[in-house]
Amino acid sequence: MTTDDPSGHRGHLFIVGGGEDRKNDKLVLSRFVELCGGPDARIFVLTAASTLHDEMWALYDEAFEALGVRQRSTALIASREDAGDERIARELYEADGIFMTGGDQKRLLALIGGTRIDEAMHRALRERGACIGGTSAGASAMSAHMLTEGKANPLPTKGTVHLGAGLGLVSRVIIDQHFSERQRLGRLLSVIAQNPYLLGAGIDEDTALIVRPGRGIEVIGQGAVTVVDGREMLTNYIDAARHESLELVNVRLHLLPAGARYDVDAGAGEPASRPVPRGLRQAIGAIASIRDAAERAGGHDAGD
Fold first, then answer.
1. Domains and CATH numbers, the chain
2. Active centre residues (catalytic)
3. Mean pLDDT of the chain, nearest integer
């Protein structure tokens, strides 16, 4: 599967930990615009995670305008009927960048999961090389399995986190946001104890994890991305009582600060990155893989 478009665009996933600067240097949003194709890019702001459509749209419309983007658009998605609108789906499909705002990831999935605009986003990434971004709730929703509830306990605890189906743009990763600021390591460890096949990615505020599908990852912004890998972990999760603190042995934790870039399969002409350490290679390979969208192709054909 490829995410390279004949126009030269390369599909990217742009996963923001929330709290990105929208007023000053706009480092994170500026890079998003660059990956979309610069000021000439068409950017669609999807506010469906929030009940405050007008306010969210105004914030990002102003920020993207200040960054020189001339073609900015949005649509009010207040029902699944709206999310099935062919005109809106076509607009998403034809966008060079789609940015999902914060709010509530459960609301976002309830409104758009499995609809025309859901399909349009996947096809825009896969067929047109669009850049798909999300911040806070919009970031959490990008994974196939997303956090829907969970207390930020200081220690991993059984029965305190709940998962739901996400958009599936990333397949084997649980994304948590506002990570360092809200001290969510215990929460992410709770998820990994329950689902050791999955990787955890905790993204700090004003920080973005950029995924180049099939190639590698990059971290930009003011913070870091914490990757938790429990695939070789030993745990007492099965025997522990509900709400009991968990024992986790042999959990790998990788801290990737802003500026980190790793390629498992760099394309021709891409800037060189550091060699991927052996202990990190499988994790980056899992994050950078993207679910084959062929299974989704049976849905609506926005953009045809």
1. 1-142 (3.40.50.880)
2. 136, 178, 205
3. 90
